[in-house]
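wait is this the right file?? whatever heres the structure
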């Protein structure tokens, strides 16, 4: 969960400079790779631990493509088609930007040489920079969540004052 908070905050904090709907799409893009690429496998593990289902070992594999650049961007494009036509081009750009931001943050982590497939199908190498531990976001998540609330709170106060100074109730 901390990793998801970190990813969303990484979009929402700078996204304060965007229109709110744009910041939302950018942050959804940062969450897509984990929600689609990782959540089904975690859900399957939980079901097996509870004894509720016997999930085949291969089940989470197809979802993993969402956690790679090409798969994540294809998913972003498909998601953009659910929006009104006038927003689609911007939505694709924002969602893809979020996916790339997600992967850029992930590649900073150290997974002890396991890394991420970033260039599939052109290269099956795994990449990681090893700058931070894979669990480092657990410590950062509360501070990033607080920072996100502060910058968006300030934005809301400034917006409210602007409306009130123009006599808009």
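ok assuming it is, sequence goes like this
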């Amino acid at each position: 969960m901390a990793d998801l908070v970190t990813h969303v905050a990484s979009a929402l904090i700078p996204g304060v400079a965007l229109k709110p709907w744009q910041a939302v799409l950018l942050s959804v893009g940062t969450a897509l790779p984990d929600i689609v690429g990782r959540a089904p496998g975690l859900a399957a593990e939980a079901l097996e631990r509870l004894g509720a289902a016997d999930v085949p070992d291969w089940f989470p594999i197809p979802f993993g493509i969402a956690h790679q650049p090409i798969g994540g961007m294809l998913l972003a494009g498909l998601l953009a088609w659910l929006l009104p036509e006038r927003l689609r081009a911007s939505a694709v750009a924002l969602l893809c930007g979020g996916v790339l931001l997600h992967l850029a943050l992930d590649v900073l982590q150290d997974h002890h040489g396991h890394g991420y497939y970033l260039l599939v199908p052109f290269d099956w190498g795994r990449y990681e920079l090893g700058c931070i531990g894979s669990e480092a976001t657990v410590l950062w998540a509360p501070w990033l969540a607080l920072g996100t609330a502060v910058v968006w709170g300030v934005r809301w106060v400034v917006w409210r004052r602007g409306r009130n100074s123009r006599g808009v109730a």
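Residues 137-165 form the longest helix (29 residues). so i think its the right one actually
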